[in-house]
Amino acid sequence: MTRGGEDRPRLRFITMAWGEAYIKELFDITLAAALAPGNIPAMARLFDSTMIILTEEGWFERLRDHPAYKGVSKYCPVELRPIDEFITRPDAYGTALTYALFRGFEDLGEDMVNVHLVFLNSDFVLADGSLRTVATRILQGERLILAPSYCVFGDEVTPTLLARRDPDTWALPIRPRELAALTIRHRHNTIRAKTINQRAVSLEWIDQLYYLVDRHTMIGRQFPIAVISMRPEHVVTDMVTFWDYGIVSEVCPTTPRCVIADSDDFLMTELRGRDTARGQIRLGFPSAKQIASKLYRFITADPIELARHTLIVHSGELPAAIERAKVDLERFTNAVLAYLPAPMDYRHHYIWSYHYPTFQKLRAQYLASRGMPLPVDPDSLIEHPPIPSAEVLEAQFEETTRGMAADMEGKDVPSPRPPKPIPTRFVYDRISGLAPLFKPHFADVDPVSRIVAGQTYARLLVVTSDHLDRRVFARTGHVRLRARDVLPADGACADHRDRPPVPGTRQDVGPAARKRQGLGDRQFDVCICELDEADLLRSRELVDALAPTVRFGGSLFLFHWNATMGSFDAGQKLVDADALLSEFPSRLHAARTSDRSAVIRQWDDALAGVRKGALSDRWHAVKSLAEAMWTAFQINRRGNLVSADRLPPDCTSITVELEIAS
């Protein structure tokens, strides 16, 4: 493992990018962060190092003049290698990435078992000192090292990163806890929508699970976890599966897995576009079984094994609450994995096998056009059956997991809040009036009632929209405000990010504005917002303005009547507006329509008749109201009208519950 008489282990950095945006990101940010003193410079002192950059051949000349290329060259030789033959079709990213990374070390041949390979993706930003940690682990004998990456909004984080880059050395040093603060504060929707204690929204496909402990700490489980460094156990001559789903078992089958889990030791932030995966965001949160049913379609043994590691990113000292968070996250993860007892074989994965012939034929066509030898004979490639439909795969999953639902009951939700005191009539008297079971709105107010019921002396703030067809909470609370008194007038989102206030607008939702509105810090135990659709779409601004008025551990509710009492058509608008992506633990409740829509309309019409109808018609209105009350009583006694974490096909209302955490 020596070369040229040197007494240092051999190491090769491998990175890649294609497409102008990713190439620019690699050279302007990723390599700049890798040039921080505790990264490439630290490793180069300990290892006989080289770097291979895999990219489009047309960029070679420009990249050799780039400051990042010159900066890395000061520490180790750099070589550019073409990957044009792999990127002939945009829908084969996984296969192209796998072959691009393989090109970074396949030339080593029999010697690859003697070289430590270190991988850097084009959009990964390393905290200073991360590669020094990797170097230490390698020198301690580790030959397979993995570590997580955390996705952030690239447009929000990039200006801060570029401001830290030294124009002379091109190095971008940022300490782990500084980068951790940026990572948590600007975490991408693909993290927010996979956070098990923020259950108002979720992602359709979930292969990571997170738990936001507080504003400075987040833990997670990822399947898979990124390979940072490996020294192959044996010589590999070709790829047989997707990189993330089989490279560990294929290249290092018996090597112990070393996972660097704490961000103080290694932190890698992944820059992502704002709209990445936006189309997958849904209201509510899936069950463990629903998550597993999607993973079942592609998951292999490597990711499942790696999902057992708890990952921690933190910008301060670890809080005591992290222990409970770890228990909740482990319980939920175990519930998901319990539905995946027999993952598919990584070798010749059915998705890989289906795409492989087309990928290789297009690759061969490209090489033939350049007069280059073909890696495989296109005529020898065997066409594989189409990928099974979602319905077929779902049926297979149901057959595999039949009988497991009862065993998993209750294991896929976070621990409940501490028990409340014995409920009083306080909430029901103020919200539902006397005899709440006789009201058809009982299920709609139930999520609020259950939380507040024991707080006899609770200080309540109620915020309502101006124009509501039906009001439930209007007479509740010690302080009442209109939503327009709280929201910034221009509609600009004041979401605690690094955005300066706009002169002349009401973006000020800080202490001064709250004082003008008569709101003191931590003044209330509960805040209830009863909102029309327009104000609901500005929920994030509303929460930012009102959360400081609620004590830590208190509750803030966003309540909205669904006017149609059918499907909730505003759901996609909420997703598009990022309206429910708050900084606090949250949960979605939806009151199912069942057979309540008719009785609610009857109740409203009868009540209006009693109040405003002609004297001769009031008797009929009273009779109709009594019928509505009796029907409502029968429905309410059956219970099960509120769906937590799910958005049913038809609902009368949704309630988003937020726990105000420090």
Q: Would you mind describing this structure in some detail?
A:
- 36% of the residues lie in helices and 18% in strands.
- Mean pLDDT is 87; it is low at 1-5, 418-434 and 491-509.
- It has 2 domains: 10-338, no CATH class; 426-594 and 641-659, Rossmann fold.
- With 662 residues, the chain is of the alpha/beta class.
- Strands 8, 17, 18, 19, 20, 21, 22 and 23 form an 8-stranded mixed beta sheet that branches.
- The longest helix has 24 residues, at 615-638.
- Helix 11 crosses helix 13, helix 17 (426-432) runs antiparallel to helix 18 and helix 24 runs antiparallel to helix 25 (615-638).
- It is elongated and about 100 Å long.
Task: Summarize the helices and strands and which ones pair or pack.
Blueprint: E1 10-16, H1 20-34, H2 40-46, E2 48-55, H3 60-64, H4 67-73, E3 78-82, H5 93-103, E4 115-120, E5 124-126, H6 130-139, E6 144-147, E7 150-153, H7 154-163, H8 176-185, H9 189-192, E8 198-199, E9 201-203, E10 208-214, E11 217-222, E12 226-230, H10 243-251, E13 258-259, E14 268-272, E15 281-283, H11 288-295, H12 301-306, E16 311-314, H13 322-338, H14 350-369, H15 390-400, H16 405-408, H17 426-432, H18 442-452, E17 460-464, E18 479-482, H19 483-486, H20 511-516, E19 524-530, H21 533-536, H22 539-546, E20 550-561, H23 571-576, E21 586-592, H24 596-612, H25 615-638, E22 642-644, E23 651-659
Parallel strand pairs: 1-2, 1-4, 2-3, 6-13, 7-14, 8-21, 17-18, 17-19, 19-20
Antiparallel strand pairs: 4-12, 5-14, 6-12, 9-15, 10-11, 11-16, 20-23, 21-22, 21-23
